[in-house]
Specification:
272 residues; alpha+beta; 60s Ribosomal Protein L30, Chain: A; six-stranded mixed sheet; 7 helices; elongated
Length: 272
């Protein structure tokens, strides 16, 4: 989990899942009919989920029954089982071990790293990680400033003096020695503020996939435009008439007599 400060980290014990970036889609197939286009995609969404397991003082062994560990481990197991689906994949698991600031710094540093290493062994054995999954380890000692907010909100005797110690420029060892001189404060820290700092944080980066089908209706084809009516060709059929000599009005004139009308449509053959 990416945190603004270590002081906030220990208080975020519940699972948090969120999207890292926009989904990515890959076209698998496309079919077309007279009415629609059908496309099938594989959509992959990068995701991240965070968990926290807590440890007993001076111990690097995971206690599955301690505090919220049963719920956190169950949620982690559910996620890892879901990611076995062929559409999903695990990209990386970041495991960060922490130790509280009380005690020798060298011992605490080693303890933080050992907690991370041991939890990696647990994850590898429990979930059989897929090939290509990266496991990144780290260890860190929580600073004394991580207990300041919880102490400031308390009403324990000697609180104000303890806050001055925490805000001072002393070394971690000097702060611890000075805080131990305030019995009520030290009891409060040992009971309430320091135990949550002894933990392992697990950040699972994965991709969740799904198959998506889209159907796009095609626009109907336009109706055919009406064709113009063909123009008719009118042919007058005439017959040459020889006038009778008995008709003085038609002397030496050739007369035509209309016998009928033939209507010829374009493309037809007419013999005259």
């Amino acid at each position: 989990m990416i945190l603004a400060s270590v002081a906030l980290a220990w208080s975020l014990q519940a699972e948090a899942q969120h999207t890292l970036s926009k989904p990515d889609s890959v076209l698998l197939s496309e079919t077309k009919s007279s009415t629609e286009t059908v496309r099938n995609y594989r959509v992959t969404t990068p995701m991240e989920a965070d968990y926290a397991m807590h440890y007993a003082i001076s111990s690097a062994q995971l206690n599955k029954t301690m505090g919220d560990n049963p719920e956190e481990l169950e949620e982690l197991t559910q996620l890892m089982n879901r990611l076995k689906d062929s559409l999903n994949r695990v990209d990386a698991i970041h495991i960060m071990g922490y130790a509280s600031p009380d005690g020798p710094a060298q011992l605490n540093g080693s303890l933080a790293n050992q907690r991370a290493t041991n939890f990696k062994h647990y994850v590898v054995k429990q979930y059989a990680l897929p090939e290509g999954c990266r496991v990144v380890l780290g260890g860190e000692i929580a600073p004394w400033s991580a207990v300041r907010e919880q102490l400031a909100q308390s009403s324990v005797a000697g609180r104000d003096e303890a806050l001055k110690i925490l805000d001072g420029n002393h070394t971690p060892a000097e702060k611890q020695a000075a805080l131990k001189q305030l019995p009520a404060v030290w009891q409060f820290l040992a009971r309430e503020a320091l135990p949550p700092l002894r933990r392992v944080e697990v950040d699972v980066k994965y991709c969740e996939g799904q198959l998506v089908e889209t159907r796009t209706k095609l626009a109907p084809k336009p109706a055919p435009r009406p064709q113009p009516t063909p123009e008719a060709v009118v042919v007058l059929v005439e017959e040459e008439v020889v006038p009778s000599k008995e008709d003085p009005c038609c002397d030496e004139l050739l007369m035509s007599e209309t016998l009928g009308i033939i209507v010829a449509m374009p493309g037809s053959e007419v013999d005259f």
